[in-house]
């Protein structure tokens, strides 16, 4: 019964499309969409492949996804070859099974089934598929969205196929994501002999009270949609080759902040600056904002999707914004609602990534149901 979605997932897994390479995954999808009468616009930049496909007029749903995957990691820890899809005990193993070749297959087969049944539906179905979601994100969804903006495209509902389910298919959908801001901080001291500390300034000692306060800093309380903004220190080092008798001259500290929509990048940077000043620290700092937060307050589309999930799984999904960033951040301003829903995320980016084969069929049915509810 699920031969079609299973076979398409397998076909895609067997292509080692390590980000940002696509290696022909999109050709497979495009061929099938052309048979359904979709218009196709390939929008490739450098080594990234993207396409925008659409069929119909009026109220528009966009399926957003990616054909690239992360590398296999430690190959000897895989039970099966990562780029040869393998079925074992009701699960399909292979890199990209859940993130997100399985979801892409489910979207495509759902659309095929819907159009075969309802070729004259009123509305527009579209796809935006990229191959650099797992790498820099520079030449993928972001670039295509800038072109769609120039074309004055409007999207009513965007459905991102990222794996959002946590313990069982359907238990979680995402209606936003936190932002991500990274800091590269250098603290300056005065290098010297450990036995003569009065002639030196130890940057590790000088920064310790600052680090304690930084690691417990409360920036906001969160709200109904978001957890409080959080800070994680990810690396500390001094380039001291002589650990017995030398005080280092510098200390490097890296930290990342996952922030919600209650606070801006600028507010965070000012707060950290105040903290550094409070402890009279000599420093230099550079910041990179990888993603800004976004939120789609639950409305029509979120309700339709929740109903369809309940109809297929008997589960009422939680609506959350946790986890990493996603390409939803590039599109949400073009769409009335951007919602993410896909397979289980417990094995994403791990060795032995796998999907429950029954979940593939269920996901296809949920996506199919969404099309029915939107357009019939
Ligand atoms: Zn993904």
TrEMBL record:
Domain Peptidase M20 dimerisation: 175-283
Co-factor(s): Co(2+); Zn(2+)
PROSITE patterns reported in the protein's UniProt record: ARGE_DAPE_CPG2_1, ARGE_DAPE_CPG2_2
Family the UniProt entry places it in: Belongs to the peptidase M20A family. DapE subfamily.
UniProt keyword annotations, A-Z: Amino-acid biosynthesis, Cobalt, Diaminopimelate biosynthesis, Hydrolase, Lysine biosynthesis, Metal-binding, Zinc
Cofactor remark from the record: Binds 2 Zn(2+) or Co(2+) ions per subunit.
GO molecular-function term, one example from the UniProt record: zinc ion binding
Name of this protein: Succinyl-diaminopimelate desuccinylase
Biological process per Gene Ontology, one example term: diaminopimelate biosynthetic process
Pathway(s) per entry: Amino-acid biosynthesis; L-lysine biosynthesis via DAP pathway; LL-2,6-diaminopimelate from (S)-tetrahydrodipicolinate (succinylase route): step 3/3
Assembly information from the UniProt record: Homodimer.
InterPro entries to which the protein is assigned, alphabetical: ArgE/DapE_CS, Bact_exopeptidase_dim_dom, DapE_proteobac, Peptidase_M20, Peptidase_M20_dimer, Peptidase_M20A
Binding site for Zn(2+) 2: 99, 134, 349
E.C. number(s) listed in UniProt: 3.5.1.18
Keyword Lipid biosynthesis: no
Main EC class the enzyme belongs to: hydrolase
Pfam families in alphabetical order: M20_dimer, Peptidase_M20
List of catalytic residues: 68, 133
Catalysed reactions, semicolon-separated: N-succinyl-(2S,6S)-2,6-diaminopimelate + H2O = (2S,6S)-2,6-diaminopimelate + succinate
Top-level lineage group: Bacteria
NCBIfam families: dapE_proteo, PRK13009.1
